[in-house]
Write a sequence for this structure.
């Protein structure tokens, strides 16, 4: 069943290093992914993202002229983005805490350090499919909930609700309804 699910996925790979693109594509094909779009330029990738129904984006952190964080912010917040909720997995050799936090704060769903292994990439792909995180909108952030840890039995007001008020009908729909074809 997992293989059939992987066959249906359409994955956009964005990396300015052609060798890394080939590695990622080879790994994804090994999982059974057949529908791959790969682009080296983040601006071209955003145009491709707008033109096709993409289920998962895998992007590099350090690219020119647009970084992976900038590309992620574009996908998450641009009015012309067709799916602000698409899962985004970022790959990077720059895995220092500050870079991981920058990626998280840009709206990345998962972060994977290079050199990437098939096992680790598979874990990240499975995570975005099987356990999608709720999305949060604040004045300075839109993306997956950055909190990984849940406190069972928590009693009290949610911190964001205390700061920004309760969720309203104007808030975006849940990612489960917005991510097309990933399930």
């Amino acid at each position: 069943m997992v293989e059939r699910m992987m066959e249906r996925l359409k994955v956009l790979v964005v990396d300015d290093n052609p060798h890394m693109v080939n590695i990622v594509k080879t790994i994804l094909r090994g999982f059974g992914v057949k529908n791959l779009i790969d682009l080296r330029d983040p601006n071209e990738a955003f145009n491709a993202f707008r033109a096709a129904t993409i289920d998962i984006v895998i992007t590099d952190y350090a690219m020119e002229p647009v970084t992976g964080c900038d590309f992620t912010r574009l996908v998450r917040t641009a009015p012309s983005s067709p799916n602000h909720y698409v899962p985004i997995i970022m790959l990077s050799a720059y895995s220092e805490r500050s870079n991981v936090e920058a990626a998280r704060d840009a709206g990345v769903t998962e972060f994977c350090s290079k050199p990437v292994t098939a096992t680790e990439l598979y874990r990240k792909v499975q995570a975005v499919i099987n356990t999608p995180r709720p999305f949060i909108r604040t004045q300075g952030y839109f993306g997956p909930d950055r909190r990984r840890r849940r406190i069972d039995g928590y009693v009290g007001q949610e911190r964001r609700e205390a700061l920004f008020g309760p969720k309203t009908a104007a808030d975006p729909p849940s990612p489960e309804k917005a991510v097309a074809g990933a399930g």
Observations:
- The CA atoms of residues 107 and 143 lie 4 Å apart.
